[in-house]
Amino acid sequence: MRSKAIGLALGTGFAVGMAFNNAALGAERQVTDLTKLTCRQVLMMYGEEQRFVAIFFHGFVSGRKNETMFDGPQLAETTDKIRAECIDKPDTRLLSVFEKYRK
Known about the structure:
Order of helices and strands: HHHHH
Largest sheet: none
Number of helices: 5
Strand content: under 5%
Low-confidence stretches: none
Oligomer: single chain
Helix content: 55-70%
Distance between the termini: 20 Å
Structural class: mainly alpha
Shape: globular
Radius of gyration: 14 Å
């Protein structure tokens, strides 16, 4: 239950951050399908937005795996591997890359 709360909190934080960011920029409302988001799309985002996406996806995967604890240095290492694969294969779906490295 706690991991779901963590995932929800991270996801909510991401969504709220994106909503404020888009509102501040006068952007239209954007709905993102997590199953279709590609590495290329994330790599073209600005640094802070990329970090929000990484945090959200780590929380999403952790919630799906019912994980209630995490190892910060291990997640950082995993994030580096995910980023490297995204650079090598930009048309890959981001969720599949996260699932591969977050076994």
